[in-house]
Amino acid sequence: MSGRRRIGVMGGTFDPIHHGHLVAASEVQAQFGLEQVVFVPTGQPWQKSHEVVSPAEDRYLMTVVATASNPRFLVSRVDIDRSGLTYTIDTLGDLGAQFPDAELYFITGADAVEQILSWHRVEELFGMAHFIGVTRPGYSLDSAHLPDGAVSVVEIPAMAISSTGCRDRVRAGLPVWYLVPDGIVQYITKRGLYRDEDAAPTAEW
Ligand code: ATP
Ligand code: MG
Predict the structure, then answer these.
(1) Where is the Cytidyltransferase-like domain (predicted)?
(2) pTM of the predicted protein model
(3) Cα 62 to middle of ligand 1, angstroms
(4) Segment 36-46, tens digit of pLDDT
């Protein structure tokens, strides 16, 4: 391994950001000696182009709130400020230009690594960053179809949390305390995120 500074890149919809994302980033930061991990909320993710996602500014602000206390975590607006669908190749291109002297480590869930082969210009992607596939309960990584050494796998301590699960809980009036940081619970309530438009307001948690 070279002595260049190492920068992690954690892309995601972050709708909302939850402790699974934060633990994964922290674990990879420690294991790979990353100087910083840059969280990059997507614009409109191409994989989710038919789904309704919360406004980019809400997802960006939640990411800022959740990462603010960790000096190794940063948030980038590159994807939300770029128009059109978000492609990882553009994310890595923009961050490579911003950190020209760094080796990039792209952190992604095992579920997403399996889709990597369907990503745009995949050979080019592997040349732009090391890929770290983080596994969570219920997912295992089948790297059989990936080029040798292209993807490292890191197991994240039991974190069966997903944004979908958090959104469903909010919609059902169930608490998301301790699944997401406290500030995110409060932000979701303040902005009325994940409630059905015409549902009756529920009591404050
Ligand atoms: P959704 O349920 O809406 O798909 P998500 O929880 O998968 O949301 P994303 O914003 O899609 O969250 O995820 C960003 C990245 O974090 C993806 O690479 C995803 O695989 C990874 N990730 C999500 N949840 C976890 C978790 N609990 N542990 C480790 N990685 C995770
Ligand atoms: Mg997901």
Answers:
(1) 9-169
(2) 0.91
(3) 15
(4) 999 999 987 67
Q: Name residue, tokens 């190749």.
A: 89
| ipTM value > 0.90 | yes
Smallest Cα–Cα separation from 28: which of 48, 6, 42, 8? 8
- Indicate the SS3 state at residue 24: helix
Q: Which amino acid is at 114?
A: E
The C-alpha angle with vertex 17 and arms to 13 and 21, in degrees rounded to 5, equals: 95
The arrangement of strands across the sheet holding 102-109 comes to 73-75, 36-41, 5-12, 102-109, 130-135, 151-155
Contact 35, 8 (CB under 8 A): no
Closest CA to 47 of 86, 15, 80, 104: 86
List of domains in the chain: 5-160 (3.40.50.620)
* Closest atom, ligand 1, to C-alpha of 42: 10
List the one residue out of 154, 144, 184 whose CA is nearest residue 166: 184
